[in-house]
């Protein structure tokens, strides 16, 4: 019988199926740097990377309008964040810069990839959208449609400026609106494929099924954030109008 009985999967296989192989420390493994990458200065500085990552996280929590808005929205939804408990800097696979672990309800910031405050801000905001969806919307990450929806929302709200779409090959000056939607679909597709062992067509189908509804859902940021704009600050200032407890 060529079919796999999911109930017979080992713990390690189940973890890999849900993306835990991208986050080795989530599986209780101690990270072992490659000697060749250490030789070329690409690895071997895990302790200093962790300290720098935690400083960047703290700075974002104190200063980033988007991160502060997300934390306020989570608090107002009954899911307050304790940064010592709910945010973890770890070494990850090089294909990801962060993640959300719904089992432990933790945001993972990949200290070996997210090396500056700007990237950390993007990771925190993106993953806190997943945390918000899990808190507010009874999100089931094992349901591929749910996963596609939260990835669409995160890409829509935080990633796909015109320049991002251009970089992905999804934009031209003549189709800005369509470019944004294509960028969101591309980003969501890549995210689904990164954490779920499904075929590309299965992932595409899931993204397309839920796209209209999830693309239209701008909560809790309330607007799509454009690069080099005041959108972050506007969203933060508007937070109290939606009942979010922002400082």
UniProtKB/TrEMBL annotation:
EC id: 3.4.24.-
Keywords: Hydrolase, Metal-binding, Metalloprotease, Protease
InterPro entries: Peptidase_M76_ATP23
Keyword match Protease: yes
Domain of life: Eukaryota
An example Gene Ontology biological process: mitochondrial proton-transporting ATP synthase complex assembly
UniProt GO molecular function: metal ion binding; metalloendopeptidase activity
Any one Gene Ontology cellular component term annotated for this protein: mitochondrion
Coiled coil: none
Pfam families hit by this protein: Peptidase_M76
Family designation: Belongs to the peptidase M76 family.
PANTHER family in alphabetical order: MITOCHONDRIAL INNER MEMBRANE PROTEASE (PTHR21711), MITOCHONDRIAL INNER MEMBRANE PROTEASE ATP23 HOMOLOG (PTHR21711:SF0)
Protein name: Mitochondrial inner membrane protease ATP23
Lineage start: Eukaryota, Metazoa, Ecdysozoa, Arthropoda, Hexapoda
């Amino acid at each position: 019988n060529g079919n796999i009985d999911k109930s017979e999967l080992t713990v390690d296989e189940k973890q890999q199926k849900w993306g835990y192989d991208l986050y080795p420390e989530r599986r209780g493994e101690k990270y072992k740097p490659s000697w060749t990458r250490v030789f070329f200065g690409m690895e071997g500085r895990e302790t200093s990377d962790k300290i720098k990552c935690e400083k960047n996280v703290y700075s974002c929590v104190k200063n980033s309008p988007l991160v502060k808005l997300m934390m306020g929205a989570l608090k107002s939804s009954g899911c307050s964040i304790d940064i010592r408990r709910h945010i973890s800097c770890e070494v990850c696979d090089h294909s990801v810069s962060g993640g959300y672990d719904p089992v432990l309800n933790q945001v993972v910031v990949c200290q070996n990839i997210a090396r500056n405050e700007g990237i950390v801000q993007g990771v925190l905001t993106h993953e806190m959208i997943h945390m918000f969806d899990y808190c507010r919307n009874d999100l089931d990450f094992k349901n591929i449609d749910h996963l596609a929806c939260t990835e669409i929302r995160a890409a829509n709200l935080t990633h796909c400026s015109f320049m991002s779409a251009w970089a992905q090959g999804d934009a031209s000056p003549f189709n800005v609106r369509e470019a944004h939607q294509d960028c969101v679909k591309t980003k969501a597709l890549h995210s689904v494929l990164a954490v779920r062992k499904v075929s590309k067509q299965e992932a595409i189908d899931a993204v397309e099924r839920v796209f209209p509804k999830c693309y239209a859902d701008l909560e809790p940021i309330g607007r799509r954030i454009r690069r080099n704009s005041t959108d972050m600050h506007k969203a933060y200032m508007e937070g109290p109008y939606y009942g979010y407890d922002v400082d």
